[in-house]
Amino acid sequence: MDAHVYIRPDELGEETTSLSGSVPGELLLELGQGDARCAGDISYRLDARVYDGRELVVDAQVAVPLKLRCERCLNVFDYSLPVHAVINREVSAEPAEVDIAEELREEILLALPAYPKCELAGQECEIHDIRRDFGLDKAPLPGVNSGAAGERSVWDALDGIISTPPTP
Question: Which residues, 6 or more positions from 35, have their beta carbon under 8 angstroms from its beta carbon?
Fold first, then answer.
């Protein structure tokens, strides 16, 4: 990883100091060309302070511009991922700079959506529903037949199941 986010603990005190900046997204995340790609610089705002001269505490607000592939329609959409992280690091008098890039990277990777959908970005999903069997998890609108015309419903197989109460 070639990206760095440096903080100088010797310039901080017990009072909170705000720092802001940006770092190249591809260098920090190294996502490659998969279904999630970084789409620009990652901007951050850091509120940092040092307690007792030994513990660095950083409250980070990060905005990550991404290009994600929708799990339903497979279209690519833009999304700005907000990440909030609190980073604690023990410091000594020796290091002049502390690099928190790895901690930020881990927090961003944990915040990435596992199954991104267009709705994250406020867009309507363009589902290419050939068999008309998507949306089974939603109640159909009044007057709308959820199954394909002339075909049996996918739920017909459940009609043959007989539920019997358990015997004590």
Answer: 68, 69, 116
